Every structure is written in C-alpha cells, then in structure tokens.
Amino acid sequence: MKFKKSLMLAAAATLVFTAACSSKPAPAPSSSPNASEGSSSAAPEETKKPEEKYKITGATYIFGNPPPKDGRGQQMLNEKFNVDYFAEKIPNENFVEKITAMVAGGNMPDQIAFRNTNMDLFNRWANQKAFLPLNDFIEEFDYLKEIPDELWLPFTIDGKIYGIPTWAPVESQSFFVRKDWLDNLSLPVPTSYEELKEVAIAFTKNDPDKNNKNDTYGLAMGQDINPTFSMGPYWQHDTWYHQDAEGNYIPGLISEGRKDLIQFFNDLYKEKAITNDFAVVNWADTNNEFYSGKAGVFLIAPRGMSQDYMKALLEINTGAEFVVLEPFKAPDGSQGFTAGTGFAKMLAINAKLADNPDKVRKMLEIHGFSRQYYQPSKNSSDNKDFDWFYGNEGVGYKLDENKVRVALNDPAAGTEPFLYFLDNTNWITANDDPEYPNAYAVPQLKEATQQLVDINKKFKLYYPPHVGIISPAEREVGAELQQFLMNEQTKMITGNRPISDWDTVVKEYMDRGGSKIIAEYNAEIKARGYTERIWK
C-alpha cells in the first residue's frame, strides 16, 4: 500500500504552497528551557522572552459526573504547562446535542474529542473543513509519528488528516475450548471448521465432563448469531474483506465466507451442537450457557473478561482447563484475525487555529504528555510524570502490593490532573507490553488471556478498509438491512429457509439499498488511497 507515500506527497505540496505565501513556520517549542543558549544569532531579549500563555478550550464526552471546574488537578495542569486550559466534559447522553449546538452557533472550542460512535459527525465536519489538517504537525511530534499508517486512514480525506486516534486494542478476540473435555475424549485442538464441527458434536454426544448425563453441547451462541465464531476475516460478518467482480469491497454478511459459516452452523444445529434456542437468547444468557458448564466453546477477548463468570464455572467444574484457538487457514490461503479498530475516540482541532501554529503546538505538547504509557507492573512514584499525572502518591493515589494504582478520592474531588485532560488514555505502542493477563487474579483466566496475546503476536492481523466510514445510505437503511440479513441467515441455520436461497437474499439486500451502500463505501475507500488488503 502506498498510503504513507501519498500522505507525504500531500504534505510536501502543502509546504510548497505555504512557502510561496508566507514565511516558514516557527519550530516546535523545545522541552528544554535553555534550548536557545549558546546560539550566536539569538538576541538577548529573544532568549529571555517569556513563553506566551495560551487560553485553550476543549470539549469531550464523559460517562458519570465531570470533575469540578477548578479542582486541584486543573490547577496543577495549568501551572505545569503555563496555560489557561479547560476541557468541558459533557455527559455522554447529551454530548452530540450539545457539541452540535456549539458548532452551529459558531462556538466550536479549540479541540474536540469524539467517541468512535460519533464518526458520522466527525466525517461531516471534516468534509466541511471545520478541522485543521494535521499532516505537517505529525512530522514534528514523535508521539504522532509512532501512530501506524493504517490508523490514520479513518481520519484522512483527500490526503489530509483531520483527527488523532486515541488508543484501543488492535489485538483480536478468539474462542476458547474446554481443554479438559478435549482430553477426556482424546480429541486434538481443532484447527479448521471441519475439526471444530467434530469437536462440537462430540461435546454434545459423548459426555465430555464424564458425569454420565446428556447435559453438554458444543458452541454457546445467542440471538443475531452472536458470537460469530469467525476464525479469520474471510468468515467475519462485519469485516469488508471480500471483493466483487469489479474489485469493490463488500460487507462480510453477504460474502461466500459468511455463507460457508451459515452452513457450518446449520450442520451443528441439526446435531443439537449449538444453543438450541439461540435465536431468542440474549447476551447474558449466552454467557450463562458457557459459564454454567453446559457448552464447551465460547468467546475470549484481550480484555474485559468477567472474573465472576469464570469463578462461577470453576466452582461447578473445579478441573476446568482452556485452550485458545488459533485462526483457521482460509480458502484463499490467508490466516490471521481481524485487527481491532485501534482507536476508541479521536481528537480534532479547530480549523480557525491555522493562523496560530504555535498554539497548536502547545496543544499537541499537552496532548502528547497525556498519552504517555505507564506499564502497570512498573508503577512507581519515582516516575515523576506518573506521580504528577495521578495526583501524587498519598494524595491522589496509593499503590497496592501488586503495584496497582488505587485512587484515594472520588473524581468529584478533582484531585488528580489526569481527570482534566481531553485525552487521558495511555497510548500503547507495538513495542509496549499492555499486560492484559495481569488484569485478572483467576489463574485460568490469566493463562487463557496469555494464550490469546501470544496468538496475536504469532499471526498477522488484517486491517479492514471500511473502518470509520459512514455512508449516507448506511445511515438511512443500513441497520434495517443488517437485521434483514441476520433474520434470514438465522432461518437458514434453523432450517426454516434453505441455504440455496443465499443468492436470492443477497439480491434483495442489494435491491433495497445494499448496492448504494457498497458504492458509497468504496468511493471513500478509494479516496483514502486504500488499494490492496493490509495485513500486519
């Protein structure tokens, strides 16, 4: 892919135009107060000139209550960076309404941090040139240069980057299998759908927990065919991996890979090897199917797993063990999982700051500081940035015996500076250890999570081209069409509609607006400069 090259060409073109119209922008402020000392060309008054104190405004969403406007943490932030900085934290349920009113009224703050679910709003305003292009600034700041090319794609329009992603895991989820059941039945760990089918049927018919009861089965699944049991992007319903005859990327829900997966589920349904009433089972009850010891295969994610669920299972089956499945090799030869989006929200800067690049640099300096990663197992008040960020040991936090930071105050006290930054999510690079397993105390969950981490390191991840695109047709009929496909595919699994009707269902999807959605997505994909599939 030539994405980075195209961005650099766009940046170069911008620089040529700027050079023709104005003087060269000032260099980024140095972190050293004595950076200019020793320069024979600097006048004494220039050396001693105090840094301008900028007023910086911002807005973002918050779950729960915001900290007080003038708390201790706010004062510490302004003093450290010599700014008058305030980021309004708007309750999430009111965020879109309030930020839209701000922008419509001409009161857009200097910077806005959006949720990834607000991508349509971000795209609309970026297309209206409400945000500042950031290409040139990216080259000035190391923390921005660390962001991989593929994570800039969702924020790129005509070669210009309008948003900065906030970290979220790219590591993929997978599925774990009851290893003790495999061992009891002398079965190998499945490496293909055919082998997984054999395992699921054996878990249903061969008493894998050896309790002399017919009370177990294979895959725990709930309504809307969730989890998907996609063992790679080839089969994944929400990943635009497949292409049509014209080379356009198409949604996974209508792909040949999805059709194969629906046939797989149909085969298992006939054998009672998936949750029998899955079409009406909610997510909580789907979890219960696995964690009550009934089913033998279920979802595992890099973070956010429930220790309480796992403890409940271990009380029922004290000898339970787990093995995490590696991605299956697809018919096209690919093998790997789909990457997570890599961002949970994004920061955009007001286009009106184009004539004040030094203020933008100060904002980016503060933003970069707020994203520093502090490896949990190495937490220490000896790290001055860590200690300051979280309000000083003994005042804002304490460290327990495992070096886990424990807050000493409610956020409403406003004690810690991190509460006041627009973005306070640590950015974890590919070279950092996020220590996902250390989030858990249950040994079996720690070990399974480590397996998943190792698998993500072993295989490349697919970065889909559609992330961040919201087409007008998608907004209008996308949810309705997705539910239509889910309903018809559920009927195919249960045998209430033949899988031979697949092409008929796809045609109805296309005729009802799907073809327009595909056309709009692919226009944006091409505009981003995305050409061939990205595996990293």
What is the secondary structure topology, with strand pairs?
Layout: H1 3-21, H2 44-48, E1 55-62, H3 72-81, E2 84-91, H4 92-104, E3 111-115, H5 119-127, H6 135-138, H7 142-145, H8 149-152, E4 156-157, E5 160-161, E6 164-167, E7 174-178, H9 179-184, H10 193-205, E8 217-219, H11 256-270, H12 283-291, E9 295-300, H13 307-316, E10 322-324, E11 337-338, E12 343-349, H14 357-370, H15 384-389, E13 397-399, E14 405-407, H16 443-458, E15 461-463, H17 472-494, H18 502-527, E16 534-535
Parallel strand pairs: 1-2, 1-3, 8-9, 11-15
Antiparallel strand pairs: 3-12, 4-5, 6-12, 7-9, 7-10, 13-14, 15-16
Short summary:
With 536 residues, this protein is α/β, with parallel strands linked by helices.
Give the C-alpha Rg.
Answer: 26 Å
Give unreliable regions as ranges: 1-46
Number of helices: 18
Give the biggest beta sheet: 5 strands, mixed
Q: End-to-end distance, in Å?
A: 12 Å
Mean pLDDT: 90
Strand-residue fraction?
A: 5-15%
What is the helix content? 25-40%
Strand order of the largest sheet: 2-1-3-12-6
The beta-strand count equals 16
Decide which structural class fits the backbone: alpha/beta
Shape, principal axes of CA atoms: globular
